[in-house]
Amino acid sequence: xxxxxxxxxxxxxxxxxxxxxxxxxxxxxxxxxxxxxxxxxxxxxxxxxxxxxxxxxxxxxxxxxxxxxxxxxxxxxxxxxxxxxxxxxxxxxxxxxxxxxxxxxxxxxxxxxxxxxxxxxxxxxxxxxxxxxxxxxxxxxxxxxxxxxxxxxxxxxxxxxxxxxxxxxxxxxxxxxxxx
Length: 180
Known about the structure:
Blueprint: H1 3-28, H2 43-62, H3 69-97, H4 99-115, H5 117-122, H6 130-141, H7 146-171
Helix pairs in contact: 1-2, 1-3, 2-3, 2-7, 3-4, 3-7
Protein backbone atom coordinates (compact mmCIF):
# COMPACT_ATOMS: atom_id res chain seq x y z
CA UNK A 1 0.00 0.00 0.00
CA UNK A 2 1.27 3.47 -0.84
CA UNK A 3 2.47 5.58 2.12
CA UNK A 4 0.04 8.38 1.29
CA UNK A 5 -2.74 5.88 2.08
CA UNK A 6 -1.16 3.66 4.74
CA UNK A 7 0.06 6.52 6.96
CA UNK A 8 -3.40 8.14 7.40
CA UNK A 9 -4.90 4.71 8.11
CA UNK A 10 -2.24 3.90 10.69
CA UNK A 11 -2.41 7.25 12.50
CA UNK A 12 -6.19 7.44 12.13
CA UNK A 13 -6.75 4.03 13.70
CA UNK A 14 -4.29 4.64 16.53
CA UNK A 15 -5.87 8.07 17.13
CA UNK A 16 -9.31 6.45 17.15
CA UNK A 17 -8.30 4.03 19.87
CA UNK A 18 -6.90 6.87 21.99
CA UNK A 19 -10.03 8.99 21.41
CA UNK A 20 -12.32 6.09 22.38
CA UNK A 21 -10.31 5.47 25.56
CA UNK A 22 -10.38 9.17 26.41
CA UNK A 23 -14.13 9.46 25.74
CA UNK A 24 -14.80 6.45 27.96
CA UNK A 25 -12.58 7.71 30.77
CA UNK A 26 -14.14 11.17 30.67
CA UNK A 27 -17.66 9.76 30.72
CA UNK A 28 -17.07 7.30 33.55
CA UNK A 29 -15.30 9.93 35.65
CA UNK A 30 -18.34 12.20 35.51
CA UNK A 31 -17.65 14.54 32.58
CA UNK A 32 -19.75 14.03 29.48
CA UNK A 33 -17.20 14.27 26.64
CA UNK A 34 -19.66 15.70 24.12
CA UNK A 35 -20.63 18.60 26.38
CA UNK A 36 -17.12 20.01 26.79
CA UNK A 37 -16.78 23.50 25.24
CA UNK A 38 -15.03 23.50 21.87
CA UNK A 39 -11.98 25.47 23.01
CA UNK A 40 -11.29 22.80 25.69
CA UNK A 41 -11.95 19.90 23.33
CA UNK A 42 -9.33 17.14 23.52
CA UNK A 43 -9.55 16.75 19.71
CA UNK A 44 -7.47 19.89 19.21
CA UNK A 45 -4.43 18.23 20.80
CA UNK A 46 -5.19 14.71 19.55
CA UNK A 47 -5.73 15.73 15.93
CA UNK A 48 -2.83 18.17 16.02
CA UNK A 49 -0.39 15.53 17.23
CA UNK A 50 -1.53 12.76 14.91
CA UNK A 51 -1.75 14.97 11.83
CA UNK A 52 1.66 16.50 12.58
CA UNK A 53 3.41 13.16 13.08
CA UNK A 54 1.61 11.56 10.13
CA UNK A 55 2.67 14.31 7.76
CA UNK A 56 6.17 14.36 9.24
CA UNK A 57 6.56 10.58 8.80
CA UNK A 58 5.52 10.80 5.17
CA UNK A 59 7.86 13.71 4.53
CA UNK A 60 10.92 12.33 6.33
CA UNK A 61 10.73 8.59 5.72
CA UNK A 62 8.84 8.16 2.47
CA UNK A 63 9.48 11.32 0.47
CA UNK A 64 13.11 12.27 1.14
CA UNK A 65 12.29 15.36 3.21
CA UNK A 66 10.08 16.75 0.47
CA UNK A 67 6.42 17.65 1.01
CA UNK A 68 4.02 19.52 -1.17
CA UNK A 69 1.00 21.21 0.33
CA UNK A 70 -1.47 18.82 -1.33
CA UNK A 71 0.35 15.79 0.10
CA UNK A 72 0.06 17.20 3.61
CA UNK A 73 -3.61 17.92 3.01
CA UNK A 74 -4.34 14.39 1.76
CA UNK A 75 -2.59 12.81 4.75
CA UNK A 76 -4.18 15.16 7.29
CA UNK A 77 -7.67 14.77 5.84
CA UNK A 78 -7.24 11.00 5.80
CA UNK A 79 -6.23 10.97 9.46
CA UNK A 80 -9.10 13.08 10.80
CA UNK A 81 -11.69 11.38 8.58
CA UNK A 82 -10.63 7.94 9.89
CA UNK A 83 -10.70 9.16 13.51
CA UNK A 84 -14.04 10.94 13.07
CA UNK A 85 -15.64 7.97 11.33
CA UNK A 86 -14.42 5.29 13.74
CA UNK A 87 -15.18 7.31 16.87
CA UNK A 88 -18.54 8.45 15.47
CA UNK A 89 -19.54 4.82 14.90
CA UNK A 90 -18.27 3.96 18.38
CA UNK A 91 -20.44 6.71 19.90
CA UNK A 92 -23.55 5.37 18.18
CA UNK A 93 -22.80 1.84 19.42
CA UNK A 94 -21.85 3.07 22.91
CA UNK A 95 -25.07 5.10 23.24
CA UNK A 96 -27.08 2.05 22.18
CA UNK A 97 -25.34 -0.13 24.79
CA UNK A 98 -25.25 2.56 27.49
CA UNK A 99 -28.53 4.55 27.14
CA UNK A 100 -27.55 6.83 30.02
CA UNK A 101 -24.83 8.33 27.77
CA UNK A 102 -27.49 9.57 25.35
CA UNK A 103 -29.80 10.72 28.14
CA UNK A 104 -26.99 12.64 29.86
CA UNK A 105 -26.14 14.34 26.56
CA UNK A 106 -29.74 15.47 26.07
CA UNK A 107 -30.07 16.62 29.70
CA UNK A 108 -26.79 18.57 29.52
CA UNK A 109 -27.76 20.24 26.26
CA UNK A 110 -31.16 21.20 27.67
CA UNK A 111 -29.44 22.64 30.76
CA UNK A 112 -27.22 24.72 28.46
CA UNK A 113 -30.25 26.01 26.55
CA UNK A 114 -32.06 26.90 29.76
CA UNK A 115 -29.04 28.81 31.06
CA UNK A 116 -28.97 30.86 27.86
CA UNK A 117 -32.74 31.21 27.47
CA UNK A 118 -32.83 34.94 28.18
CA UNK A 119 -30.07 35.64 25.64
CA UNK A 120 -31.79 33.52 23.01
CA UNK A 121 -35.17 35.15 23.50
CA UNK A 122 -34.30 38.80 24.16
CA UNK A 123 -30.84 39.76 22.95
CA UNK A 124 -28.72 39.84 19.87
CA UNK A 125 -29.54 40.37 16.21
CA UNK A 126 -31.25 37.01 15.92
CA UNK A 127 -33.90 36.33 18.51
CA UNK A 128 -36.37 33.50 18.71
CA UNK A 129 -39.89 33.39 20.07
CA UNK A 130 -40.93 31.42 23.12
CA UNK A 131 -42.75 29.01 20.80
CA UNK A 132 -39.63 28.39 18.71
CA UNK A 133 -37.61 27.85 21.88
CA UNK A 134 -40.10 25.29 23.20
CA UNK A 135 -40.18 23.58 19.80
CA UNK A 136 -36.38 23.23 19.87
CA UNK A 137 -36.51 21.78 23.39
CA UNK A 138 -39.04 19.21 22.24
CA UNK A 139 -36.93 18.28 19.21
CA UNK A 140 -33.88 17.97 21.43
CA UNK A 141 -35.67 15.52 23.73
CA UNK A 142 -36.31 13.30 20.69
CA UNK A 143 -32.75 13.43 19.32
CA UNK A 144 -31.83 10.05 17.82
CA UNK A 145 -28.70 8.22 18.93
CA UNK A 146 -27.23 8.51 15.44
CA UNK A 147 -27.02 12.28 15.92
CA UNK A 148 -24.16 11.80 18.40
CA UNK A 149 -21.98 10.05 15.83
CA UNK A 150 -22.85 12.39 12.97
CA UNK A 151 -22.26 15.45 15.15
CA UNK A 152 -18.88 14.10 16.28
CA UNK A 153 -17.86 13.38 12.68
CA UNK A 154 -18.88 16.84 11.41
CA UNK A 155 -17.18 18.72 14.25
CA UNK A 156 -14.07 16.56 13.80
CA UNK A 157 -14.05 17.44 10.11
CA UNK A 158 -14.22 21.18 10.72
CA UNK A 159 -11.54 21.11 13.40
CA UNK A 160 -9.31 18.69 11.50
CA UNK A 161 -9.54 20.68 8.28
CA UNK A 162 -8.18 23.85 9.87
CA UNK A 163 -5.43 21.97 11.70
CA UNK A 164 -4.48 20.19 8.47
CA UNK A 165 -4.14 23.45 6.57
CA UNK A 166 -1.93 24.96 9.26
CA UNK A 167 0.29 21.89 9.63
CA UNK A 168 0.57 21.32 5.87
CA UNK A 169 1.80 24.88 5.41
CA UNK A 170 4.26 24.61 8.29
CA UNK A 171 5.71 21.26 7.21
CA UNK A 172 5.75 21.70 3.46
CA UNK A 173 9.00 21.86 1.60
CA UNK A 174 8.50 22.29 -2.08
CA UNK A 175 11.95 23.13 -3.41
CA UNK A 176 13.45 20.76 -5.90
CA UNK A 177 14.93 17.79 -4.06
CA UNK A 178 18.16 17.67 -5.94
CA UNK A 179 19.14 21.34 -5.95
CA UNK A 180 22.39 22.01 -4.16
